[in-house]
C-alpha cells in the first residue's frame, strides 16, 4: 500500500509542478483578485481532498486546479508586498534614510565602491519606521575598508537610488508574463556612516569566515592571479576577481557552468564523498545523512546564492529519496525541487539561472537516453559526456539566445575535453580549503595538482574560444519561438523512441526532420530584418543618458548616442532586430552619451559616423575613434548647415555646432553638442544633445529653424538647459526627457517640467515610461511606451 501511495505521488508530481508554475505566471500576468482566488480555492480544495482519500474518475483535475490556484495566490501575495514601493519612493524623493540589517554576502571592492548584500530588517526616515525582510545591494565609498563581515548586524545612513543603466536579465517568459519592471534599487551609504550593531552572526558565521579567509590565502599564495580567482569562484562562489577575458572565454565556449556553483558541483562533491565513505562500515542512510550535512554546510559557506540554493534543494530532494528507500525518479525529483523553490520565492520563475538549471536537468533526463542509444559504439564514459552535453545544450539554447544573444557552437567539444578534469580539480579545491583551515602549507601538494589542471583548462578554453565561428550570434529570438521550440523538443524525442519503425523508415524521418530544421534555421538567420511600416523614433531607456533610434520604412537605421551602460543600447537594438546602422551620431563625448556606442560600433556594421569632433582626450572618446579607424567606418564632422538625405522625404538638418566653434563661459562640451532636426513630410523632431542655455541662445540669435513637433529635451531636463526663448521657438507638442530614475542630480528640474506643461506640451519621461516609441506617417504621431 505504501509503495502504491509513493508511486501515485511520483506520478502526480510533474503535472502538479506544471500547474503550480502556470498558476504563478497567471498571478503575475493577470493580477486576479486575491479574494476571488481564495473563494475559488475553498470548494476546489474540498474536492481535491475527497479525491485523495476516495479517488473518483476525473478527480485529478481538482488536484491540478488546487495547485494552480495556490500558485496564483502566492504570486499575488508577493506582488502586493509594499517593500519595493517604499524603496522606490525613497529613491525618487532622494531622502536620507537609515537601514539596519544582516550582511548577507562577502564584502567586495569595485572600481569606486565597496559593495555587499544586506538583508534589511528595519528602515527609518523622517516619516516612517518600517519593518521589512528585503535583501538589497549596498554601496559604500572607497576609503577605510569595512570592518564587518558576513553575518554582522549593521546600521547604515544613506540614500536609496535607482540603478542607472542597470543590465538586468529578463529571463524566459518574463516578457510575456511580467507586465512592468521597475529599476533596481540600490542603497548608497554615506562615508563613515556604517556602524556595527552586532559583530557577527555567532560561532557558525565566524567559522565560515575563517574557512573562507584561509582558503583565499591558500589560493593566492600558491596559484597565479587568474588561477586563484578561478578557484575562488569555483570553490567559494566568489567571482569578483575573475578577469573579463576569462569570463568571455568560458561564456563563448559554453563552459561557464564549470565556474558557477551548480547542481553539477553538488553531484561531483557528493560522489567524491560517497567514494571516501565506502570503505567504512556504516549504513547507506548514515552516508546520505553525512552527505546532506556536508552539502548544507558547503552551501552556507559559499553564500547560499540563488544558484547554490537551487543546487542544495535539488540535492536534498534526491538524497532524501535515497534515505526513504524510494526508487530513483529524476523527473519527480526535478518537479518537487521546482515546487519547493517557487513556494519559497515565486519570482524565481523569471530567474535566468533557475531556467537554465532546470531545463538543462530536464533535457538530460528526457533526451540523453535517446542519444546514448545511438552512441553505444563509443566508450561508455565518452558516450555519457557527449549525450549529457548534447541534451543539456539543446535544452538551454533558447534561454541563451533570449538573454545572451549567442549560442556556443563548440560547447559539445569543450565539454568532452574539459569535463574529465573537473572532478579532480573541484575535489582538490574543496579539500585544500579544509586543509588551509589547519595549516596552509598542507595544501601545497594539492595546489601543484590544481595548477597543472588549470594550465591545461585555460589553454584548451582559450584555444576553443579563438576558433572562428565558435559562437553563433542570435539577432532576435522571442518567447513565442522558444515555446514552439520546447514543444517540439520535449515531444519529438520521447515519441520517437516509442514509435515502431524499421531502420530505413527511421532514417527517412530523421533526414526529413533534419532538413526541416535546417530550412527553419536558414530562414531565421538569413532572412533580412523587417523594417517598420512607419517612421519610428525610439527614445531608449538607458538610465541617466541618451540613446535614440530612428528607423525608416525603407530600412534605414540611425542611432543618436548610446547612453552610459556599455551593453544596454546594443542589447536593446538586438531585441528590436536591428542588424546594421546606416548612421551613428555622437552628440558630444560625455560618457552618458558615448560609452554605450563603443559596443554598438564594435559589434554592428555601421555605414557612417557623424560627430562634432570636440577634440576630447578622454579614454572612451579615444577608444571610439580607434574603433572607427580599425573598422574603416566613414567619419564625418558635423557642421551647421549640413543636410543629410536619408531616404524619400526623410532628412537630417544639422543646426549646430558652428565652425569655428563659439566660445562659452560654462559647459563648453555640452554647448558644442551636435543638434539635428529630423524632418519627414510634416513631422519634425529636434534632437538637442545636452546643449545648455548659452548654446540655445546662439541658435535663437541666429534664427535657426527650431520649430518642431517633438522635442528631445536637452541635458535630461536640467535647469542649466532651460531657456525660455529657445522653448518658445521650438513650440513642441511633445517633449521627451531621457533620464534615469532617482538620479542624484535631481533631473528633470521641477521648473523645467512646469515650463513645458504651461506651454501645453505633453511630457514623456523614460524613467516613468521606459522605452518611448513615436510612430508617424509624416502627418500624425502615435506614442507607445514600454511600461
List the helices and strands and how they pair.
Blueprint lengths: L1 H29 L3 H20 L6 H20 L3 H11 L2 E8 L4 E2 L3 E12 L4 E13 L11 E10 L11 H4 L7 E14 L4 H20 L2 H12 L7 H9 L10 H15 L6 H18 L4 H18 L6 H15 L7 H23 L5 H25 L1 E3 L2 H8 L3 H15 L7 H22 L5 E3 L5 H20 L4 H24 L8 E5 L8 E4 L5 E4 L7 H8 L7 E4 L4 H13 L5 E3 L7 H12 L4 E3 L5 E5 L2 E7 L11 H4 L3 E6 L2 E5 L5 H9 L8 E3 L11 H7 L3 E4 L12 H9 L3 E4 H4 L2 E5 L4 E5 L2
Parallel strand pairs: 4-6, 11-12, 12-13, 13-14, 18-19, 19-20, 20-21
Antiparallel strand pairs: 1-3, 1-5, 2-3, 3-4, 5-6, 7-8, 9-10, 9-22, 10-11, 15-16, 16-17, 17-18, 22-23
How would you characterize the overall build of this protein?
It is a single chain. With 787 residues, this protein is α/β, with parallel strands linked by helices. An eight-stranded mixed β-sheet has the order 14-13-12-11-10-9-22-23, with helices on one face. Helix 2 packs antiparallel against helix 3 (60-79). The longest helix is centred in the N-terminal third of the chain and has 29 residues, at 2-30. Residues 164-170 and 178-182 have low confidence and may be disordered.
Which range does the strand content fall in? 15-25%
- Report strand order across the widest sheet: 14-13-12-11-10-9-22-23
Low-confidence stretches: 164-170, 178-182
Would you count the extended β strands for me?
23
What is the makeup of the main sheet?
8 strands, mixed
The pLDDT mean sits at 82
Radius of gyration: 29 Å
Question: What share of residues is helical?
Answer: 40-55%
Global geometry = globular
Amino acid at each position: 500500500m505504501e509503495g502504491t501511495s509513493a508511486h501515485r505521488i511520483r506520478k502526480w508530481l510533474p503535472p502538479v509542478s506544471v500547474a503550480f508554475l502556470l498558476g504563478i505566471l497567471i498571478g503575475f500576468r493577470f493580477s486576479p483578485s486575491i479574494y476571488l482566488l481564495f473563494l475559488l480555492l475553498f470548494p476546489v480544495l474540498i474536492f481535491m481532498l475527497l479525491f485523495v482519500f476516495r479517488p473518483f474518475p476525473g478527480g485529478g483535475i481538482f488536484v491540478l486546479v488546487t495547485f494552480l490556484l495556490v500558485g496564483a495566490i502566492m504570486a499575488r501575495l508577493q506582488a502586493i508586498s509594499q517593500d519595493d514601493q517604499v524603496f522606490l519612493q525613497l529613491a525618487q524623493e532622494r531622502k536620507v534614510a537609515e537601514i539596519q540589517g544582516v550582511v548577507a554576502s562577502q564584502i567586495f571592492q569595485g572600481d569606486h565602491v565597496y559593495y555587499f548584500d544586506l538583508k534589511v530588517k528595519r528602515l527609518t526616515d523622517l516619516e516612517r519606521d518600517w519593518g521589512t525582510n528585503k535583501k538589497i545591494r549596498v554601496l559604500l565609498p572607497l576609503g577605510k575598508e569595512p570592518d564587518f563581515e558576513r553575518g554582522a548586524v549593521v546600521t547604515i545612513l544613506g540614500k536609496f537610488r535607482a540603478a542607472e543603466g542597470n543590465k538586468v536579465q529578463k529571463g524566459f517568459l518574463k516578457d510575456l508574463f511580467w507586465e512592468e519592471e521597475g529599476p533596481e534599487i540600490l542603497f548608497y551609504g554615506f562615508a563613515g556612516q556604517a556602524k556595527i550593531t552586532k559583530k557577527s552572526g555567532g560561532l557558525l558565521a565566524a567559522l565560515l569566515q575563517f574557512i573562507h579567509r584561509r582558503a583565499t590565502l591558500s589560493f593566492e599564495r600558491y596559484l597565479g592571479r587568474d588561477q586563484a580567482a578561478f578557484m575562488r569562484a569555483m570553490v567559494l562562489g566568489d567571482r569578483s576577481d575573475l578577469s573579463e577575458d576569462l569570463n568571455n572565454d568560458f561564456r563563448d565556449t559554453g563552459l561557464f557552468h564549470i565556474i558557477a556553483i551548480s547542481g553539477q558541483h553538488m553531484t561531483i562533491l557528493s560522489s567524491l564523498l560517497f567514494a571516501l565513505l565506502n570503505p567504512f562500515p556504516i549504513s547507506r542512510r548514515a552516508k546520505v545523512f553525512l552527505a546532506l550535512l556536508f552539502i548544507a554546510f558547503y552551501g552556507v559557506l559559499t553564500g547560499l546564492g540563488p544558484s547554490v540554493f537551487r543546487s542544495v534543494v535539488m540535492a536534498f530532494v534526491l538524497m532524501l529519496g535515497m534515505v526513504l528507500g524510494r526508487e530513483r525518479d529524476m523527473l519527480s525529483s526535478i518537479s518537487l525541487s521546482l515546487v519547493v523553490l517557487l513556494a519559497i520565492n515565486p519570482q524565481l520563475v523569471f530567474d535566468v539561472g533557475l531556467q537554465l538549471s532546470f531545463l538543462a536537468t530536464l533535457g538530460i533526463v528526457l533526451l540523453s537516453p535517446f542519444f546514448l542509444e545511438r552512441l553505444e559504439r563509443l566508450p561508455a564514459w565518452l558516450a555519457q559526456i557527449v549525450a549529457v552535453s548534447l541534451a543539456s545544450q539543446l535544452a538551454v539554447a533558447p534561454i541563451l539566445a533570449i538573454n545572451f544573444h549567442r549560442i556556443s557552437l563548440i560547447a559539445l567539444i569543450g565539454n568532452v575535453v574539459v569535463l574529465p578534469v573537473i572532478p579532480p580539480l573541484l575535489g582538490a579545491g574543496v579539500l585544500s580549503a579544509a586543509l588551509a583551515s589547519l595549516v596552509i602549507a598542507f595544501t601545497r601538494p594539492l595546489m601543484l595538482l590544481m595548477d597543472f589542471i588549470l594550465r591545461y583548462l585555460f589553454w584548451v578554453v582559450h584555444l576553443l574560444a579563438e576558433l572562428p565561428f565558435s559562437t553563433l550570434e542570435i539577432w532576435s529570438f522571442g518567447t513565442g519561438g522558444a515555446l514552439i521550440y520546447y514543444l517540439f523538443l520535449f515531444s519529438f524525442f520521447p515519441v520517437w523512441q516509442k514509435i515502431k519503425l524499421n531502420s530505413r523508415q527511421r532514417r527517412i524521418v530523421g533526414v526529413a526532420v533534419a532538413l526541416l530544421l535546417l530550412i527553419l534555421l536558414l530562414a531565421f538567420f538569413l532572412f533580412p530584418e523587417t523594417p517598420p511600416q512607419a517612421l519610428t523614433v525610439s527614445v531608449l531607456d538607458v538610465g541617466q543618458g541618451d540613446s535614440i533610434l530612428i528607423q525608416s520604412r525603407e530600412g534605414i537605421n540611425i542611432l543618436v548616442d548610446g547612453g552610459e551602460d556599455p551593453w544596454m543600447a546594443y542589447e536593446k537594438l538586438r531585441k528590436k532586430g536591428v542588424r546594421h546602422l546606416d548612421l551613428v551620431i555622437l552628440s558630444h563625448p560625455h560618457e552618458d552619451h558615448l560609452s554605450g556606442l563603443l559596443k554598438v560600433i564594435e559589434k554592428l556594421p555601421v555605414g557612417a559616423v557623424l560627430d562634432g569632433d570636440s577634440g576630447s582626450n578622454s579614454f572612451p572618446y579615444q577608444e571610439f575613434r580607434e574603433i572607427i579607424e580599425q573598422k574603416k567606418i566613414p567619419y564625418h564632422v558635423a557642421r551647421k548647415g549640413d543636410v543629410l538625405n536619408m531616404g524619400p522625404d526623410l532628412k537630417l538638418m544639422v543646426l549646430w555646432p558652428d565652425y569655428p566653434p563659439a566660445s562659452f563661459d560654462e559647459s563648453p562640451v555640452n554647448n558644442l553638442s551636435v543638434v539635428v532636426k529630423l524632418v519627414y513630410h510634416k513631422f519634425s523632431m529636434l534632437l538637442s544633445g545636452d546643449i545648455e542655455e548659452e548654446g540655445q541662445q546662439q541658435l535663437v540669435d541666429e534664427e535657426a529653424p527650431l520649430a518642431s513637433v517633438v522635442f528631445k529635451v536637452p541635458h535630461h531636463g536640467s535647469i542649466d538647459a532651460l531657456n525660455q526663448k529657445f522653448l518658445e521657438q521650438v513650440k513642441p507638442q511633445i517633449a521627451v526627457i531621457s533620464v534615469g530614475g532617482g538620479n542624484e542630480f535631481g533631473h528633470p528640474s521641477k521648473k523645467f517640467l512646469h515650463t513645458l506643461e504651461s506651454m501645453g506640451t505633453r511630457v514623456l519621461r523614460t524613467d516613468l515610461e521606459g522605452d518611448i516609441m513615436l510612430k508617424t506617417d509624416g502627418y500624425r504621431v502615435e506614442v507607445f511606451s514600454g511600461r
